[in-house]
# Entry
Amino acid sequence: MEALLANIQGLSSNAGDLSNLHIILKQAHDSLYAESIRLLPLLDQLDPSIHSLGYLYILESCSSGAFSKEQATTMVLPIARFINSCDKEQIRLAPDKFLSVCRRFKDHLMLLEAPLRGVAPMLTAIRKIQSSSEHLTSLHPEFLVLCLLSKCYKAGLSILDEDIFEVDQPKDLFLYCYYGGMICIGQKRFRKALELLHNVVTAPMSVINAIAVEAYKKYILVSLIHNGQFSTSLPKYTASVAQRNLKNFCQPYIELANSYSTGKIAEFETIAQKHREKFDNDNNLGLVKQAISSMYKRNIQRLTQTYLTLSLQDIANSVQLNSAKEAEMHVLQMIQDGEIFASINQKDGMVSFLEDPEQYKTCQMIDHIDSSIQRIMALSRKLTAMNENISCDPLFLGKVGRERQRFDFDDFDPVPQKFNI
Amino acid sequence: MEADDETSGPMIDDEIYANGVGGDDEKRNRPIISGEPLDIEAYASLYSGRTKISRLLFIADHSRSNQAMELEALRMAYDEIKKGENTQLFRDVVQKIDGRLGPEYVMDLAWCESVDRRAEQKREKLENELNAYRTNLIKESIRMGYNDFGDFHYSHGQLGDAFKNYVRTRDYCTTSKHIVHMCMSSILVSIEMGQFAHVSSYVSKAEQSQQTPEALDSVTVAKLRCAAGLANLEAKKYKLAARKFLETGHELGNHYNEVIAPQDVATYGGLCALASFDRTELKNKVIDNLNFRNFLELVPEIREIINDFYSSRYASCLDYLGNLKANLLLDIHLHDHLETLYDQIRNKALIQYTHPFVSVDLNMMANAFKTDVAGLEKELEALITDNQVQARIDSHNKILYARHADQRNATFQRALQTGNEFDRDVKSMLLRVNLIKHEFSLKQAKKS
# Structure
């Protein structure tokens, strides 16, 4: 063990030495595991920022195995410290070790019921291990779970705002989008939530999985809240298993969505009440309640399309609210949220609905449009690059080539004339 | 339908001269379902054959609230059936009458038995004949044999069998005249059965055999138009139905009484046209249609309705419609569609009324439509929500303002929205591509 320690201390300075050390550490892997209990004190002799690789191996073997609460407490601190100070280059030599340390770290925190303590270190860990901001690591879902449990939704958003394109494991993506959707729901960013959940539901899958089913349930409710409608047909690029099976797993939700489109609040509430237990078990009751209140909003919004002025009492009647007072509160709230444009005349209890004052003439609006154009152009470039990339990919060509076995004579370009000198 | 009846027979002439002056008002004040036996009798006299019975039974079924009328209809149905040979229908009617019409209208078992016995004999005879024909392989005779069988089943009320036999004659048709005959019989039976999908297919079949023009005389053509119109009506394709009825030639006369009376052509065609045509179409195809005018003369109410509608006298138009409604509901073909047609006509009237104005006073509009402002508001609200009327209601001052969509703003909005959608779609597409790629390389890795 001492020799190993010496090796770690001696061989952590440059790249060549590090690869040698890596080989040594790999060979010592089994013996490290055998002595995992005694290794903890050894860590004190190492500096996590200089001897990151060795530190990582020892830490990994220490943290393996089952833990009691007390042991977990002792482990959490060194891991957090290591994550904060370790060297990016060195840990990337052994990414799976690093991932497993981080995962254990999360498990320990769950055991201690202190998810908040893990939010910041986990974010650092993600930043250190990911190759670019577009890279989805296995730590993303872990981080989002910690955010969810500790209700640090804002911290989670910082990760969700980055567009993800590269994925290591499909399961990571499913979980990332599902948890991300939940965080966005918590922050009432329904558009983003819908986007994330949509990604889960339409992701390619060969068998149906529980994450997709749960995501579909939330997807239905969120699209009711955000769009006021839900179409049961999924886009055609959706995996066929999902198209066939998802609906069967979410019957109460489909029923709810169908009743939403009728615009009758009482009916919707009866159905919500009927399946209350089911919604509660799925932890979706809150969303169902939000869907109900969104229905009031939707109905009031519909009134703005048809009326220029309408008394509060009439509003209350037509959206099935109990009193004019309640209608006033709703209208007020919606004006505040910018969902409708209106003014209330309290003297005679009239509401005048106005047109959207946005004239698309301001500098901000032009800026906004310009930035949208830029963003989309960048995206389009990316798409082209991706397309080229794939059409050059030997694996892809191999697959396509196998499907079209024989090459016709026409496929070969004859040598251009001018080279035949 | 009784409104039509009154115009039929001896009253037609009076009606034509009286319309628009005093006669209408008189009619308007009349109780809507009158128990006068005259109505049903006149109505029934328009039809012949089985449809007469089915129409009478339909009236009986749908005027339960008015016993005098129900019994009158049943009585006439009883008499009519007695003339024919349909014992099953006879039993049903007797059961429906249930002794309420006195001893003259009870179960006549002797009659039933004799009819049944005769029917049995006839059937045997026909069967023997048909077998003989079939062994001799004479096409024309086989066709006749099947045809007779069809007629036999039809008169005894076995519509399914009748249809089968009529269709069988098809293989033995030699001239296009035969084919048309086969089609007409099939259409007749299908209408009775309510199988309107068959009706339209046989109508088109009959029309296809038109290569030899002598096979289709103008009466047959008119009949086919009617049948097609009915089929479209049942399929809720009101516009097509209206076209077909409007194309019906006046040669139809009373030749198609076993299915439809010329009065019906006017009513069905007129209502469907009102519900589905726009103003120019209404003018060109209905009001200026000389041919259809002949039909309209038979039912002045419908003509008035159309004229009122075209000249924007909505109150009187809707009034007429309201008065006709109860009677039209007793029509066997129109019954299921009347509500829809009425709603559509009313909505069209509302849309047309609001169309030319920048602002409309709801009080005046309500006046014009003989309704109250609150009700009108609800109707308009529904139309606006459906985007059929581009306007907004000022509920405070009770004024409807036309709304002018701002194209520029709408374009900006749509552009931004499309951009966002594109953004979202492409991102999720790239993600999916990566996943698929991943899965693919995973498979490759496993293989190698």
In short: The first helix of chain B runs from residue 2 to 7. Chain B has a mean pLDDT of 80. The beta strands of chain B are 359-361, 391-394, 399-402. The interface with chain A takes residues 380-381, 384-385, 392-397, 401, 406, 408-409, 412, 415-416, 419-420, 422-424, 426-441, 444 of chain B (CB under 8 Å).
